[in-house]
């Protein structure tokens, strides 16, 4: 049996509320033992609730018996947690709080899901954790479809430094302590190498990625693409925040009505006779999201259309966000498309009014991109980075795999900040900064059509040969990542390069 690690009693109760026996709704189906804060010990956070019944060998169990939670954390075969519970292993925390995650790393392997989702400021801490995993004898698995080469190479370097120290401490011969077994896996192929330096690793990783890209191209040629991206014209004037919100709301309403007409489907069950589509409008920041949502609410609709809105972002109180996510998880699971008409909230919504065209829209922030198994018919995505566009595109036709006849992903040519003429515009979230500026903030200029028309992971996996970071959003991401991970030389090269010299002359 594995173990679930949650951050508070509130999170545990919300988890339990989502697990009910359909024949006995009042009885929770939960393998989690109810525990209270009275069992918290100094070596483990009192707000940490561990739910696992198991035993280590007798000696270790006796040693840790004074801390039942710590015993459970270390002894569970599988630990599922957020990364912040392991990060204290790399820090000299007061009260011995580093002991629990260190013991966990010493006794298990480390699987990092979507490590490239971290912001630039968090990458040093991520590298430090991977270094400690190597230092404590763990093996590390990186799981993501959008791992850029700079991040993979930096994490290998960090792990190698820790692993070599670990093997030397165990008395391994020096020629063996510098050798690291590495393996790559995807849906097409797998390969493995035993490598002793960063240069050989970079070559092996590049070979695997190149092979993967070839397979992705073959697949795209054989199968019709599931995501069809197109740029959306928006006002290019420098406007106030309120006027930008109104301008985007106007553009979004025209676009979503067209998207609905192109991707709608007939309703079924008791709600038959209506035409429905489920769409996502993703905004990079919460305040602009709320402003645009308010403008959309106030706009009149053409006759026979009805919109149903759900605003979803990370600053909701925990209980409200949990309820929203439970609802979205149910209706946007399209593995059995006809089941959506059985959902009581959808059925009730379709009964409202006499309109036959019903558009269900989630207006969400970046929380819609990662970790949600949702399937939308179409999306409008405010740009911030190529990584976010790739992740968001993965929520379109995620379950049903129906090739579109029209574009189903619209990307405004400028984001909210760019429309306000703010510089940098593609930051927080995004990779643009004062030291890494873009020549233009118009996606028609800083993205090539091949990078957004049929979106897949290719732009993130490999740097282009004609690398121009000041004039291409994808290249900028690669360049800024490399500078953050490998030091100031890359950044200095960017600043004095010919493209950036032109930029400063124009300014």
Number of DSSP helical runs: 20
Mean pLDDT, to the nearest integer, reads 83
Strand count? 16
Helix content: 40-55%
What is the rounded Rg? 25 Å
Structural class: alpha/beta
Uncertain runs? 25-42, 495-507
Largest sheet: 7 strands, mixed
| Shape annotation | globular
Strand content: 5-15%
**Spatial gap, N to C terminus:** 62 Å
Which short descriptors sum up this protein?
about 40% helix; 7-stranded mixed sheet; about 15% strand; about 500 residues; alpha/beta; disordered C terminus; 20 helices
Write the layout of secondary structure elements.
Elements: E1 3-6, H1 9-17, E2 20-21, E3 24-28, E4 49-51, H2 58-64, H3 68-75, E5 79-80, H4 99-107, E6 110-113, H5 123-135, E7 140-143, H6 149-169, H7 174-177, E8 180-185, E9 190-195, H8 198-222, E10 229-232, H9 241-263, E11 265-266, E12 275-282, H10 286-298, E13 305-312, H11 318-331, H12 344-350, E14 357-364, E15 378-381, H13 386-393, E16 409-412, H14 416-419, H15 443-446, H16 449-452, H17 458-461, H18 473-486, H19 488-496, H20 498-506
Parallel strand pairs: 1-5, 6-7, 10-16, 12-14, 12-15, 13-14, 15-16
Antiparallel strand pairs: 1-4, 2-3, 8-9, 11-12
Overview of this structure, please?
By secondary structure, this protein is an alpha/beta fold. Helices cover 41% and strands 15% of the residues. Strands 10, 11, 12, 13, 14, 15 and 16 form a seven-stranded mixed β-sheet that branches. It is globular, with a radius of gyration of 25 Å.
């Amino acid at each position: 049996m594995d173990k679930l690690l949650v951050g508070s009693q509130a999170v545990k109760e919300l988890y339990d509320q989502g697990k009910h026996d359909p024949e006995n709704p009042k009885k929770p189906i939960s393998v989690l033992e109810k525990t209270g804060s009275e069992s918290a010990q100094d070596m483990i956070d009192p707000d940490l609730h561990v739910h696992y019944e198991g035993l280590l060998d007798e000696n270790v169990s006796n040693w840790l018996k004074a801390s039942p939670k710590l015993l459970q954390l270390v002894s569970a075969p599988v630990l599922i947690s957020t990364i912040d519970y392991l990060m204290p292993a790399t820090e000299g925390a007061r009260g011995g709080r580093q002991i629990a995650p260190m013991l966990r790393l010493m006794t298990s392997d480390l699987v990092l899901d979507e490590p490239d989702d971290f912001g630039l400021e968090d990458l040093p801490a991520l590298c430090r954790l991977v270094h400690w995993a190597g230092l404590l004898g763990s093996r590390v698995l990186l799981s993501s479809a959008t791992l850029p080469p700079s991040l993979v190479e930096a994490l290998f370097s960090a792990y190698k430094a820790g692993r070599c120290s670990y093997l030397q401490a165990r008395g391994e011969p020096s020629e063996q302590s510098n050798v690291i077994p590495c393996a790559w896996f995807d849906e097409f192929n797998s390969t493995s190498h035993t490598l002793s330096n960063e240069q050989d690793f970079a070559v092996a990783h590049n070979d695997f990625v190149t092979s993967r890209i070839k397979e992705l191209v073959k697949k795209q040629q054989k199968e019709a693409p599931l995501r069809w991206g197109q740029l959306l014209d928006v006002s290019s004037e420098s406007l106030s925040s309120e006027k930008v919100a109104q301008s985007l709301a106007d553009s979004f309403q025209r676009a979503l009505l067209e998207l609905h007409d192109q991707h709608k489907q007939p309703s079924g069950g008791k709600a038959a006779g209506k035409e429905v589509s489920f769409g996502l409008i993703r905004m990079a920041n919460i305040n602009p999201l709320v402003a645009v949502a308010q403008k959309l609410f106030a706009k009149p609709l053409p006759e026979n259309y009805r919109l149903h809105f759900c605003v979803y972002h990370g600053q909701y109180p925990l209980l409200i966000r949990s309820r929203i996510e439970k609802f979205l998880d149910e209706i946007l699971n399209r593995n059995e498309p006809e089941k959506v008409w059985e959902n009581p909230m959808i059925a009730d919504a379709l009964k409202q009014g006499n309109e036959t065209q019903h558009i269900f829209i989630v207006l969400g922030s970046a929380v819609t991109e990662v970790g949600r198994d949702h399937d939308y018919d179409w999306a409008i995505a405010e740009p911030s980075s190529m990584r976010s566009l790739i992740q968001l595109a993965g929520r379109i036709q995620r379950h049903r795999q129906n090739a579109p006849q029209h574009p189903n992903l619209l990307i405004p040519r400028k984001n909210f900040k760019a429309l306000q003429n703010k510089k940098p515009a593609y930051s927080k979230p995004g990779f643009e900064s004062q030291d890494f500026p873009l020549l233009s903030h118009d996606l028609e200029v800083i993205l090539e059509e091949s990078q957004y028309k049929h979106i897949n992971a290719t732009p993130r996996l490999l740097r282009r040969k004609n690398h121009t970071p000041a004039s291409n959003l994808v290249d900028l991401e690669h360049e800024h990542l490399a500078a953050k991970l490998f030091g100031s030389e890359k950044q200095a090269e960017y600043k004095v390069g010919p493209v950036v010299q032109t930029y400063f002359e124009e300014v």
